[in-house]
Every structure is written in C-alpha cells, then in structure tokens.
Predict the structure.
Amino acid sequence: MSLDVKHFYLGFADLSLFEDAQLSIAEGEIVCLSTGVLDGGTSFLKACAGIVPYQSGTLLVDGEEISHMPADKIFRKVAYCYESGGLVSLFTVYNNIALPLKYHRNFDNDFVAKRITSVAELLGIASILEYDVHQLNDVQLRLVNLARALVIRPRLLLADELQSGMSPAMREQILAILKDYCNQTRASLLMTTTAGDSHSIADRVYRIENKKIILESP
C-alpha cells in the first residue's frame, strides 16, 4: 500500500512541526524515520493514520486522501502502533488485541481466537494474553500494540519507536518478523526510530530536520 505525502504542513496552536514536508513509500517498502526529542515524529505518524488532522498539503494512502477516507476503511487497511498508551486499561491483553476484530469486523469468536493466538505466538506474548494492562512493562505494551495492529493484517503499518527498550536479540527478532510480513503481504511499513535503534530492514532511512523530512541513506 503506497503512501505519498506532499507539501505537508502540521502544527498545533503556535507550534509548527512540519512545513512543506515530502515523503513517498511504495507498496511493500520499509522506511525508517529517525527522530529526536519533540520533533514531531509521533504526530506525523498519527497524521498518516488519520488520527491527527494537518493544516495543508496532501497525504495519500493508495492514491486516496486520508482525511477523506471513511473510518471503517482506514481501520481495515491502516494500523498505528503506539509507543506508549493506546490500550484500554480495563481490558485484558487478549481483549485489547481483539478490539479491531470485534468492533470493525464481523468475525466469529473462534476466528478471532485463532488470529490472536497466531499473532501472540509469533511475537512471543502468548503467555501474557490474560494479563491486565497495568501488569505490562514498556516493551510488552509496545508488543501488544503491535499484535493489535497485525491481527487486522494491515496494508500500511505505522510503528512509533517500537524498538525502545528491547534487547538486541529481541529487536532483531521483531524486525525480522516485520520484514517477513511486508515481504509476504506487500504491506508497507513506516517506523520511527531513535538513538540506538536498528535500521537493518529499511529500504530507506529519513530524518526530521528543520521541519522537513530529509533522506539520510538509500
């Protein structure tokens, strides 16, 4: 699923985050966006997911303006993984992962259970499915957010600083899973990264500089 961002302006009140930013991702590509402190990386991802409105420019998902797409269409094709938060505190891990399948689809309980079990085992979180959200550490929270995204089998996956806090071995394992997913489904992945994160699976790496998105390495 392609993503095309052109002449992109985003800000809040008197704070301007992006001015005339550009970024294009083709179907099946993996792109990392290297971010710093409070430079707008999270807000950019949320705009790409249709969560945060932007002031002007175009943000096209498969050629369709994200702001014009109905919510159910976005939920079926685009998934955003929160760096922190994003989960319902009153729900177990299982029920959090089940949310997009139960509320935006008409799958029966057996199908939902099989899909969740498959993704949980893949990510190594099957043992915490009955945990409450408050029992999770930061890495587990990010993995549960990732599982909730993957259960819908999105065409565009947006992951915010997913690697934070992971050991090198876990990081490479999760990145390999994401690369395999993109290779098998032709889904596209845009992932923000921070200092110490790996860009090993990226087709290209960009950084945020002076309110623009700059190519760092092909």
